[in-house]
Amino acid sequence: xxxxxxxxxxxxxLMPLVLxxxxxxxxxxxxxxxxxxxxxxxxxxxxxxxxxxxxxxATINVSFSGSMTLLAEHSDKQYVINSPGRAKLSSxxxxxxxxxxxxxxxxxxxxxxxxxxxxxxxxxxxxxxxTVTRDVAVDSLSMVKEDNDSIPSEPVDSxxxxx
Length: 163
Fold this sequence. Notes:
This protein is α+β, with helices and mostly antiparallel strands and 163 residues long. It has three helices and twelve strands, in the order H-E-E-E-E-E-E-E-E-H-E-H-E-E-E. The protein is 25% helix and 36% strand.
C-alpha cells in the first residue's frame, strides 16, 4: 500500500514536467501581421511576416500599434497578440491581455498547410446543402483531382417504369 502512494506521488510530480516538455516542441505560424513586429535574433532584428514560423523561446518586439495572429501547429489554438512590449513569445502567449481562440484542429491544420505552402491542400466542396459533398485535393493550384462521391449514384433505366 505504501508503494502505491509513492508511485502516485511521483506521477503527480512528473506530470507538469511532461506537459512543459510537450509545449517546447510546439511551433507557431504567423497568419496575420499589422504594425511593426520584430523578431530579435543573435544576428540582429528582422520583421515578422505572414507565414513565418516562431518557437516559444523566440524574442519578440511588438510596437504600440502592432498586432499579430498566430496558429499553433498540431493544435486547436489561435493567438492574437496585441499587447506591446519586448519578451519571449511564451510570455506573450500567457499574457491575459492577448486573445486565445479555440478552433477545430482540422481547420487550424488546413490554414497552417496553406500558410506553409504545402503542395497538396485538402478542402471540401459542395454545390447545394442537400447535394453530394466531395473531397477535393488541390495540387499546386493548377490541377484538381476529385475523390469518389460520398453518395454513389446509379443510372436510371427508363424502360423499367413503363407498362
